[in-house]
Structures are given as C-alpha cells and as structure tokens.
From TrEMBL:
Reaction equations catalysed: alpha-D-glucose 6-phosphate = beta-D-glucose 6-phosphate
Lineage, broadest ranks: Eukaryota, Viridiplantae, Streptophyta, Embryophyta, Tracheophyta
UniProt keyword list: Isomerase
Protein family (similarity comment): Belongs to the glucose-6-phosphate 1-epimerase family.
E.C. number(s) listed in UniProt: 5.1.3.15
Binding site for substrate: R72, Q90, R95
Classification via Gene3D superfamilies: 2.70.98.10
Organism the protein comes from: Vitis rotundifolia (Muscadine grape)
Entry GO terms, CC: cytoplasm
Matching PANTHER family: APOSPORY-ASSOCIATED PROTEIN C-RELATED (PTHR11122), GLUCOSE-6-PHOSPHATE 1-EPIMERASE (PTHR11122:SF10)
Lyase found in the keyword field: no
SUPFAM superfamilies given in the database record: Galactose mutarotase-like
UniProt record, GO biological process: carbohydrate metabolic process
Descriptive protein name: glucose-6-phosphate 1-epimerase
Amino acid sequence: MGHSAAVWDHRTAIEVTKDWNGIDQVVLRNPQGASARVSLHGGQVTSWRNEQGEELLFTSSKAIFKPPKAMRGGIPICFPQFGNCGSLEQHGFARNKLWTIDNNPPPLPPNDSHGKSFVDLLLKPSEEDLKGWPHSFEFRLRISLAADGVLTLISRIRNINGRPFSFSFAYHTYLSVSDISEVRIEGLETLDYLDNLCQRERFTEQGDAITFESEVDRVYLSSSHLIAVLDHEKKRTFVIRKEGLPDVVVWNPWDKKSKAMADFGDEEYKQMLCVDGAAIEKPITLKPGEEWTGRLELSVVPSSFCSEYLDH
C-alpha cells in the first residue's frame, strides 16, 4: 500500500496520508460517503463520520495532538491496563505507541472483510517497552468500515512469551452527543458496577435506564453483548455490540473534572459520553501461544428503530 495512492477494492477506498505531525493516518471510506480515520499513533480511531458527513465521535477542541500523549477523543486503545495501577502509565502504553500497517495479517472470518474498507495494524513491544512490561506479545488490530457505515474494531492479542501474562483492556470510546442531560443508556439495567468515585465499591444499578445529572465513572460488570446509547435531541441511537469484552465503562467528567483537565474544554462534558467495551474486573490471562480476541461494533440507527434492535 503506497503512501500516495488510494487502493480501490469492492468500490471501497483506503488512503494513507500524513497528519500535521507527519504521522501516517489511514482514511477508510465506503461508497455511501461514510468515513473513518485511524492514526498510527496509538492505533487510534480519530474520526468516524456518517454518510451526511456528521462526526459521530467526540474530540476535545483542546486535545493535544502531539506524541507521546494520546489524543483526548476518538477511540484510544487501553492496553495492557485500564486506569492507573502499578508502574505503567495511565491506561497502559498501546495508545502512546507507533503502530505499523500489517500487510500480511493471519486470516479473519470472510465476513470480517467482505465488502468492507479495512486496515490491519500491528503493535509489538520494543526493547524499551519490555523493560516496563516484560511480556512479549503481538497485538493485531483490524478496523473496518462497512457499506452500511458500521465501524468494527477487532483486537487480537497473542502471547509469544515463554510464560503466562495478564492484562486488562478497553476501547475508550468517546461518543459525540447533543446534550448529556438528554442521553440515556439501555442494556445495563440491574447489573453490578464498580464505582470509581467511591473507591471502586460495588453497587447494583437500580434505574431502568442510565441518565446523567452529575459526574459518572463506573465499570458495569458482565454485561450483555448489546448496549444502546439514545440521543434524544438528535433522535439517533448508538448501538454497541461487543464480544470478548464483558465489562462496560461509563464515564462523563461533568463540570469540576472538566475544568481540571488541561486538554478538555470546561463545558465540553455536555457534548460527550464515554461508553467502553472492556475487560477489567477479571483480567485476561494468556498462556504461551494463546490468543485473545475482543471485538467492538458501533452503528447508529434512528431512535425509532431502537426497541426492535434491542429485542433481537
């Protein structure tokens, strides 16, 4: 795949360009006009637009687009840890590393490529990385955009070490919403969650849908594979499907936290919501040679469709 040419395949295009830091980014497009943009810095999806060109992911107007920091917005990959524990940087190192385009990935099921515009990325640890986290791995990430605009991220992490290792993981997805006080999440009712605002104490969700009127920072445990985020004002619903990712992080910093973050606008909490497919409570353990797959699928439907979607 050359750096200048677009590669056409099934009427779908992949284009590799450079961002303003000179770092390669991949633009995926579908014939209907939807697009997704992926930076090789962090393997991070930085943009996902529908056919009308509307941006579906949130990125802060104050985001710092300068390695080695991960950009505030889009879909950063949190690996090998979520949060802040031990000697590693917050949310692990994968989102701060330069990934490469993998031109010979091991095969995925045919439906994961058919009629889709996709790119395969690869992350392997450097000598430096192994000092901080002494485990050899291959992390393959396929990001695809389907003809219907569905965005799919498939992570495959293989242990090529002589001994087992464990990790936690999240697709830290920043959704763009019209007004946080008009948003509700369905599909997490009755679940237990760990509340990061209360020393990770465990509670049970009592509401029949989750709505927002103050800061929220929770890890919902053992959720179903389908969650819906309803944006009342836009009359549209994000449908999140996931496999291999039992937990769901729900985060909105609200006003106080927003003012404290240098790379986040004071009022921007109103236009965003993080809903992450994740594996946090029970870390994934891989024996030598074993591989784990975590799959996230994001789609947007008119809210009137939503009840049928959730019933399936």
